[in-house]
Design goal:
Length: 285
Amino acid sequence: MLASILASGLAVGAVYALIGITYNTMFSTSRVMSFTAGQLGMLGGVLGSLFILRLGLPMPVGLLATLACCALLGVVTEVVAVRPVLKSLDQHLYVLSTLAVALLIQHATALEWSTEPQPFPRLAGIGAGIWDEKYWLPVAACAVTILGLEYLYRYTLVGRAFVAIAEDNFAARALGLPERNLRMASYALAGAVGALAGFAGGQLLLAFFANGPLLNFYGFIPVALGGLGNNRGAVIGGLLLGLFQQAANFMVGGIFSSVAVFTLFIIVLLARPQGMFGAPAARRV
């Protein structure tokens, strides 16, 4: 039982962590919480099943096609739902605009794909039991993603430009950085990360249109727990959330496991409103 809890908890937690990173990546350059993150994860599973199972494409080609489609959708989200809001006085309208795009994606997927869960193909055919690929692939994808982002932000010019925009977009614009292009690139990157979450976790979550709202909510919890904009915190928060959720499923099961997750979430936020790894908000006087 302990091994099953650890294997499934780490796998599900890695998916939640990747969705949390998707939230952070979009937020960093726009200061907008885009609620399309879960839909990108859902599409990662749906498009992966479409390209590999239905169209018969090889796994690497199917993965690249899935990442490209979701990256394009990320750019469309920035242009349609985020950019107009940033120009308005009431920037909190992003809640409605991004939710509207998320609902459009979900219902279009239900109409064109299926309203029933569809199978997701085995990708590598490696492992069995608790070492089955459906458990370690999400963890491996999460590790590769966080290492890749750390390298991008620390050692590349584009990554440093992302960091500059995230820290102070007004100063970055004054220095001549192309804020709009960088914001579009960050949304494309977020789309690819979200797609990778759904693709790597496809064997656990299946290709199901209703995964979008689930991933939206459970992917936001690691962001709140780890601190907004903190990718390392999102990874730790996501893995802890997955382990706690699976342990609660084994112990109490059903809806009570969700109640346990929400209770823990509220307790942590009451004790640390900025998240476990977030810095307290400071205002310069």
